[in-house]
Amino acid sequence: MASEELSQLITETKKQLEHLRALGVEGIQIATATAPAVVVQPPRVEPPKAPVASEPTTSLFGDIAPAPAKLTKSTETFEQIHTEIGDCTRCPLHLERTHVVHTEGNRKARLMFVGEAPGADEDVQARPFVGRAGQLLTKIIEAIGLKREEVLIGNVNRCRPPGNRAPTTEEATTCKPYLLREIAVVQPEVIVVLGNTAMKNLLDTREGITRLRGNFQDYKGIKVMPTFHPAYLLRDPSKKRETWEDLKKVRDYLDSHRSDPC
Ligand code: URA
């Protein structure tokens, strides 16, 4: 081979190798004389690059949640709300109810109790918490030094679910806005939510009562204390001790935030 030809071949080979390297080929095997072939390694696939440590991975200066929405005081009256509810047929619970059971009690209350839905006694008497669970609730209220008439008592749903089942999400979603409007009228300082259904509906949480009970939560600037439902306490009286601890926290909060200096 002439030297000119050889130098051209070397130049071409170099170019070819540069090209292969640019494609990611890291080496070639020289085949034996019997099988003269160049085996090309497949280009290495690079894993996706992890973000460089100095690159910001979250928002600048960290994530500071916006201030929670505060409840705006409403100038409606309970009478207006109850008139609007009327002989309600907005959800299937109306089919088997006797009465719509409205929130009752002191409309200037500092403390409110919210339950799930009326039971058989409440359905007949058109008043919340008047059955056995209600009698226990009255004792709980008195145990923290208040009278039943001094507090406000309501439910997420105003019609009795058949067989005292828990209201469905749709039923609760239909009725809850009226309770929230009453809360906006009264603006109690503390709301005690009784049991899972009331707690989940007021706080929009997936947590269970056992996990959240005894710790103040927030509903638009109002302190919310989740605790066990009195009907549950009737079934398992051993839970009364924890309920008492929760209610003492409510009493202490109200005592230490009394605006009246007398
Ligand atoms: N259980 C409730 O949740 N509410 C009532 O009014 C009565 C029993």
What does this 3D model show about the protein?
The protein is an alpha/beta fold and 262 residues long. It is built from nine helices and eight strands. It has helices at residues 3-22, 78-85, 120-125, 132-143, 169-186, 195-203, 209-212, 230-235, 240-256, and strands at residues 28-30, 38-40, 104-105, 111-115, 152-155, 190-194, 217-219, 222-227. Strands 3-5-4-6-8-7 form a six-stranded mixed β-sheet. α2 packs antiparallel against α5 (169-186). The longest helix has 20 residues, at 3-22. It starts with a helix and ends in a 6-residue tail after the last helix. Residues 32-36 and 50-54 have low confidence and may be disordered. Bound molecules: uracil. Uracil (URA) is lined by residues 115-119, 122, 128-129, 131, 133-134, 155, 231. Uracil is lined by residues 115-119, 122, 128-129, 131, 133-134, 155, 231.
Quick summary:
This protein is an alpha/beta fold.
- By secondary-structure content and strand pairing, the structural class works out as alpha/beta
> Helical proportion?
25-40%
Strand content: 5-15%
Mean pLDDT: 87
- Rg over CA atoms, rounded to whole Å, is 35 Å
Taken in chain order, the helices and strands follow as: HEEHEEHHEHEHHEEHH
Q: Given the C-alpha coordinates, what overall shape results? A: elongated
Largest sheet: 6 strands, mixed
Low-confidence residue ranges: 32-36, 50-54
Distance between the termini: 116 Å
Major sheet strand order:
3-5-4-6-8-7
Catalogue the ligands: uracil
Number of alpha- plus pi-helical segments: 9
Number of strands: 8
